[in-house]
Amino acid sequence: MDRPRTDIVLGLLREPNGRVWAEIRPDGKHLAGLRAFPGGKRRDDETLRQALARELDEEIGIRVRRARRVITLNWDYPDRRLRLIGFEVTDWVGVPRSGEGQALAAEPLDRDARADWLAAMPPANRGLVNALVLPRCLAITPPVRADGLTGWQARLESRLHSLPAPMLVNLRPGPAVGQASVPWPALARAVLAAGHWPVVNPPADRSWPEGLDPRVGLHLNHARLMSMSAGQVRDWQARGHLVTAAVHDQATLERAVELAADLVTVSPVRATATHPGARGMGWAAFAELAEAAAMPVYALGGVVVGDLPRIWRRGGFGVASISAFW
Ligand SMILES: Nc1nc2c([nH]c(=O)n2[C@H]2C[C@H](O)[C@@H](COP(=O)(O)OP(=O)(O)OP(=O)(O)O)O2)c(=O)[nH]1
């Protein structure tokens, strides 16, 4: 039987200026020398919040006043099985100071600083860093219609400015257009100019648009998720690209975890007009997948922004939709 997981509570302390506190793991400890969030093991007699309060008091001398659980992820090291529970802490009493001799500092963390944070932290922390920078809403474009790519692009550009920024925008012209005709860099620039975070989702399986700005994410549809290698995904991520993936069941989730995707959509949660044949998996199945994920999970399929509290209660992070946003 699998060994039980140890709960690790982590404080993601965000200053009003956007800086986030992190420490350097001291010599002699697991992950020594890496950047990490303050926190530690929950004791058997503690709730998660009690453990968070105690750890942040002992380690950095602050009293937590407002904390929100933002992500929970399972991570297996060769010698230990952990469940990392990240609380975004936005109000506290005291100035964080090193209580155990560890180096401690608040550094900017936003989309542009994300890659530096990821490079300095253990791989387990990818999901935690992403949970601090990703928007909660992911708008997927409707497919190109009879009026072709030009009409589609014009509708997209005018709509971008009325979507509340920042959002993730998955650029998905659909299978009706040849990939070579899609002006990916121009589309991505329009999304960036409107204050959003573009993700390209080309119809072809293997080829990718070249020369994209590192702020542009890449989406793994089902075919790409199953055919791309972990090395290719690592290369894109090393260049700063966000990698997103479409998950439908346990097998595709396992593949997305193996490839260390930055976020996943889980669909279809409910039946939708855009995929009339597909039955929704329901909230219980969504919750099961969210619990097994190591990254932020976006519910997709018949969900709207008003579903966010329901998504959070089930361990999800955000909402993805076509019809809710266009
Ligand atoms: N504090 C912290 N620990 C992390 C992060 N990411 C990550 O994988 N971990 C791992 C390292 C440790 O195995 C565990 C945290 O446990 P800990 O700091 O209380 O315990 P430890 O094993 O370092 O030391 P000890 O209490 O056993 O002496 O979680 C992170 O961002 N912050």
Residues in β-strands, percent:
25-35%
Q: How would a crystallographer describe the biggest sheet? A: 8 strands, parallel, barrel
For the largest sheet, list the strands in their spatial order: 8-9-10-11-12-13-14-15
Overall pLDDT score:
94
Tally the helices.
Answer: 10
SSE order, one letter for each helix or strand = EEEEHEEEHHEHEHEEHHEHEHEHE
What is the third-level CATH name, the topology of the largest domain? TIM Barrel
So, the CATH homologous superfamily of the largest domain?
Aldolase class I
What are the segments in which pLDDT stays under 50 over at least 5 consecutive residues? none
**Number of DSSP strand runs:** 15
CATH architecture of the largest domain: Alpha-Beta Barrel
Number of separate structural domains: 2
What is bound: which ligands? 8-OXO-2'-deoxyguanosine-5'-triphosphate
Q: How much helix, percentage-wise, in residues?
A: 25-40%
Question: Helix/strand/pairing class, anyone?
Answer: alpha/beta
- Computed Rg: 20 Å
Q: So what's the overall shape?
A: globular
CATH class membership of the largest domain: Alpha Beta
